[in-house]
């Protein structure tokens, strides 16, 4: 997906978020590092497409929905996302 960021950022955002959301919504702690990797792809695509405001909105929603999942929040912080 990294290669697609400059050319198809919307596709990268949609696919990365979907994959990360599936992991986070299912509370699959053993895969949180994978979710963080997908979220990094989404963040890169948001920034590449000039949609920083949308990115901030998504991160706020993510924190509201999953903020009580300490393990996930730790992974996000370690990954530079939290």
Oligomer: single chain
- Poorly predicted ranges: none
Portion in beta strands: under 5%
Taken from the alpha-carbon principal axes, the silhouette is: globular
Count of discrete structural domains: 1
Largest sheet composition: none
Number of helical regions: 4
Mean pLDDT: 94
Radius of gyration: 12 Å
How many β-strand runs? Answer: 0
Topology order in helix (H) and strand (E) letters: HHHH
Percentage of residues in helical conformation: over 70%
Based on secondary structure, the structural category is: mainly alpha
What distance separates the N and C termini? 22 Å
Features:
82 residues; mainly alpha; 4 helices
Structure in words:
- The chain has 82 residues and is an all-alpha fold.
- The protein has one domain (2-78).
- 71% of the residues lie in helices and 0% in strands.
- The chain has helices at 9-25, 32-48, 52-66, 70-78.
- Helix 1 (9-25) packs antiparallel against helix 2 (32-48).
- The radius of gyration is 12 Å and the shape is globular.
- The model has no long low-confidence stretch (mean pLDDT 94).
């Amino acid at each position: 997906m990294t290669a697609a960021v400059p050319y198809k950022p919307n596709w990268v955002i949609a696919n990365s978020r979907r994959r990360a959301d599936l992991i986070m919504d299912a509370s699959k702690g053993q895969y949180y590092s994978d979710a963080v990797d997908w979220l990094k792809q989404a963040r890169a695509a948001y920034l590449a497409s000039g949609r920083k405001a949308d990115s901030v909105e998504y991160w706020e929603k993510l924190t509201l929905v999953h903020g009580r999942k300490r393990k996930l929040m730790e992974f996000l912080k370690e990954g530079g996302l939290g």
